[in-house]
Design goal:
Number of helices: 19
Largest sheet: 8 strands, parallel, barrel
Radius of gyration: 23 Å
Strand order of the largest sheet: 3-4-5-6-7-8-9-10
Helix content: 40-55%
CATH topology of the largest domain: TIM Barrel
CATH architecture of the largest domain: Alpha-Beta Barrel
Strand content: 5-15%
Order of helices and strands: HHHEEEHEHEHHEHHHHEHEHEHEHHHHH
CATH superfamily of the largest domain: Radical SAM ThiC family, central domain
Number of domains: 3
CATH class of the largest domain: Alpha Beta
Length: about 425
């Protein structure tokens, strides 16, 4: 039985029980949401050391960290360190987007050490193998594409991004739109080039049932990718983007009918005033399917600081109902990220996710902040560090400038809370006496 079939049959489902326990919601809520398609728990049975997590309505907003080699730089040891840093900083998922070196070996090494949800984009490997074997990406065959999906499933990948909505009709709208940046999705670009060169429809769309059969067989989740996502805020919310989303909404229904878990990838560059509408439109067209946004970046000029532009957009999107934030690192648009970039990206996205969880009323979110405020009032530096998103960083921050006072070196003996508490306490005693 597939995961959804097990849930429907009411049998003992450890993944559901774990998610309910860690999220502080009932088993019934988790099970009902899985069956409704508003919550996914990506968990390939072949991913042996996975600690399951849920993504969707009513749960804590999750954060993904992208890893992976490039054609210029590939070392599995580096990717393992980056993955360890991402998980240590609280990432709920990682994706291997490798395009350099021994891609299969890198993926297997990462999965073997990965305790969180693991995702990939199989079209990358299909395209690169086509170059190695036949000389060009456009020489891929549909069988190459589906073989890549199956090989990733056999390695234990929990979810795969498949760009099923890049079709001849969406490409035609792209032509007429006159975009500034055209296509920035690597998977979308691979498929677009293949389709235009071969004058054929997207095999992942044309043979969607074949994809569903693989997802049923290996029990991985589908992340329906946004191959025509905007690559600049000038291109946000255009006809090509929304035509693809309409198609993905239709495919969501087909996936649910096949008992395949499915969620939707969202845009990457969106001005602040359009983010809420983008989320609402996805939730409407895709019947409440979990929404995974790539940032979104709210301005294009933040090179070197795009973890901040992405966190701003991510907070707005998640507060509006997005369920899953793909981090953006300071190296976005500039270079392959290193370990420090990964840490910065995860932390920025986690702050955005938590801020949105407070707005959404997610259980425990506001209480965490109340505990921190109480610790600050008490000048309890140990508790403040423990309640911080990154405790060690908070400790070092407090200790870097010594002070003789209980307060930090910003205010010293003029700490506002200490001064006011002294006199409020005195006044309170006088009134009570």
């Amino acid at each position: 039985m597939t995961f959804i079939e097990r849930v429907r049959n009411g049998s003992h489902v450890p993944e559901v029980e774990h998610v309910a326990r860690t999220e502080g919601v009932s088993l019934e809520v988790v099970a009902d949401s899985v069956l409704a398609g508003t919550l996914v728990i990506p968990a390939n049975p072949l991913h042996r050391n996975l600690v399951p997590a849920g993504v969707g309505k009513g749960l804590r907003t999750k954060v993904n960290a992208n890893l992976g080699t490039s054609s210029d730089l590939s070392a599995v040891e580096m990717e393992l360190r980056k993955m360890a840093a991402a998980i240590e900083c609280g990432a709920d998922a990682v994706m291997d987007l490798s395009t350099g070196g021994d891609i299969t070996a890198i993926r297997r090494h990462l999965i073997a050490d990965c305790s969180v949800i693991f995702g990939t984009v199989p079209i990358y490997q299909a395209g690169i193998l086509a170059i190695d074997r036949r000389g060009s990406i456009v020489d891929m065959t549909p069988d190459d594409m589906f073989a890549a999906v199956e090989s990733h499933a056999l390695d234990g990948v929990d979810f795969m991004t498949i760009h099923c909505g890049v079709t001849q009709s969406t490409i035609e709208r792209l032509r007429k739109q006159g975009r500034l940046t055209n296509i920035v999705s690597r998977g979308g670009a691979f498929l677009t080039g293949w389709m235009l060169h071969n004058e054929r429809e997207n095999p992942f769309y044309e043979q969607f049932d074949r994809l569903l059969e693989l997802a049923q067989q290996y029990d991985f989740a589908l992340s329906l990718g946004d191959g025509l996502r905007p690559g600049s805020i000038a291109d946000a919310s255009d006809r090509a983007q929304f035509q693809e989303l309409i198609i993905l909404g239709e495919l969501v229904q087909r996936a649910r009918e096949a008992d395949v878990q499915v969620f939707i990838e969202g845009p990457g560059h969106v001005p602040m005033d359009q983010i809420v509408a983008n989320v609402q439109l996805e939730k409407t067209l895709c019947q409440g399917a979990p929404f995974y946004v790539l940032g979104p970046l709210v301005t294009d000029i933040g090179a070197g600081y795009d973890h901040i532009t992405g966190a701003i957009g991510g907070a707005i999107a998640a507060a509006a109902g997005a369920d899953f934030l793909c981090y953006v690192t300071p190296s976005e648009h500039l270079s392959l990220p290193d370990e420090n970039d990964v840490r910065e990206g995860v932390i920025a996205s986690r702050i955005a996710a938590h801020a949105a969880d407070i707005a959404k009323g997610i259980p425990g979110a506001l209480e965490w902040d109340r505990k921190m405020s109480a610790a600050r009032k008490a000048l309890d530096w140990s508790a403040q560090a423990e309640l911080s998103l990154v405790p060690e960083f908070a400790r070092k921050g407090h200790q870097k400038t010594p002070t003789q006072e209980e307060a930090c070196s910003m205010c010293g003996k003029y700490c506002a809370m200490a001064v006011v508490e002294q006199y409020l306490g005195t006044n309170r005693s006088a009134r009570c006496g």
